[in-house]
Amino acid sequence: MDRVPILKLGDLLLVSIQVDLDDQTVLALKEDLAEVVVARGARGVIIDISVVEIVDSFTGRMLATIAEMCRLLDAHAVVVGMRPAVAITLVELGLSLGGVRTALNLERGVALLDHVRGAAP
Amino acid sequence: MPDGTSRVPSGETLSDHADVERRLGELLRTHEEQVIRHWTESVSARRDELAELYRAVLRAVEEGGRDLADLRGLLAELSRSRARAGYSPAETSKAVFGLKGALYEIVVTHADDEVLRGFIRFARLIDDLGLFTFEAYAEAREKIIMDQAEQLLELSTPVVKLWDGIVAVPLIGTLDSARTQVVMEKLLETLVETGAEHAVIDITGVPAVDTQVAQHLLKTVFAARLMGAECVISGIRPQIAHTIVTLGIEFGDIVTKTSLADALAHAFRRSGVQVSGGPATRVTVRAEQA
C-alpha cells in the first residue's frame, strides 16, 4: 500500500498526493495526518491534489472529513490544485465539500492560510 | 437499403434475366451518344456530369446491377455538388429520372418483348438511384446542421477576462445540460490557465431560468469553488428573480448581482482593487498588494 508523505513547512504541513487514491491510502492518510498535526502542533494543512485525476465519492467524502478533523485539532486545512475534471466529478456526485477551503494552487493556498490566521489569530 | 435491382421477379428464370440485362446493356452501349443527347436536352444538368453517370449506369447494368457502390458514390457526389450550386433535391432526382425518358425514345424504336421487359427493370434501377440522390442530399444537410450546432455551442460560450484575476462568462440563449457542461469545462480550464480567483457568470442573455437551469448554474458555481475560485452570478432580471423565488430554488450563500457592473465592483472589492472617482470621471485603478 502506498503511503502519502506529510512534509513539514514551518508551522504548516504539506500533503502532496502523487499516487492514485484508493480507499486504504486515504484512510491511512487520515490517521497519519491526525497524528502529525498533534505531534507537530501544526496550525495549517495544505493538501495538494494537482496530479490527482480520478476521485470517487469515498475520496471526496474523506477530503471533507480530513478538513473537519483538522479544524477540530485547531489547524486550518486547504485543498489546492483541484483539476477541472475532478471538480466536475465531485459536483456531479453531489459533493460540494461545503466546509473545505480551496485554492487554485499551492502559492494561493499558503497565502489563504496566512490570511485566515491573520484574520483570526 | 433493399436492393430492388438484383431481385428476380417471379415468373422469370435466371437465364431470362441475364439475357434481358445483356440486351439492355447492348442497347445502352450502341445508342450511348443519342441517349446522352436526349437526356441532356430534357433536363437541366451539365453534359459531362450526365455522361459520367451514364457510363457508371452502363457498367452497373452490364454487371447485372449487383455492385452499385461506384454508382452510389458518383450520385452522392453529384447530389452534393448540385446542392452547392443551388439546385433543389427534387431537381437533382428529376435529372436522374430523365434518363428513363431519354432511353424510352430508343426503346420504342426497338420494340420487342425482351427490350421492354429490360426497360421496366432499368426504370426500377433508375428510380432507386433517383431516390438515393435525395437521401444523399438529406444526409449532407444533416451533417451541415450537426456541424453548425457544434460550432454554435463553441461560439456561444466565450470566457472573457475582465481584469487580472477576474473572468466572466456571458451566457446567451437557453441553457441545457450539454451547454452547461461546455460552459463549466471552459470556465474551470480558464481558471486553471489564468489563475483567476473570481468568476462572473452573467445570465442577462438567458431567456428563462427553471429548476434545471438553476441546478446547472449551482453546479458550475460549486465546481469553481472546489478549485478555489469564487463565483458571482449577475444579470438576474426582476422576472427571473421572481421565478427563482416562486420555484423555491435555494441559491444559498452564492453572491448574485443585478448587473455585470455590480458583479465586477464586487469582484474588485474582494480582490482588493480600488476604483477611485465615480463614473464619467477619469478612472484610476490601483491594485493593492495583499
TrEMBL record, chain A:
Residues 2-113 form the STAS domain. InterPro entries: Bact_StressResp_Reg (IPR051932), STAS_dom (IPR002645), STAS_dom_sf (IPR036513). This is STAS domain-containing protein. It comes from Nonomuraea diastatica.
TrEMBL record, chain B:
Coiled coil: none annotated. Pfam families: RsbRD_N, STAS. Keywords: Phosphoprotein. It comes from the Bacteria. The keyword Zinc does not apply. The keyword Phosphoprotein applies. PANTHER family: RSBT ANTAGONIST PROTEIN RSBS-RELATED, RSBT CO-ANTAGONIST PROTEIN RSBRC. This is STAS domain-containing protein. It comes from Nonomuraea diastatica.
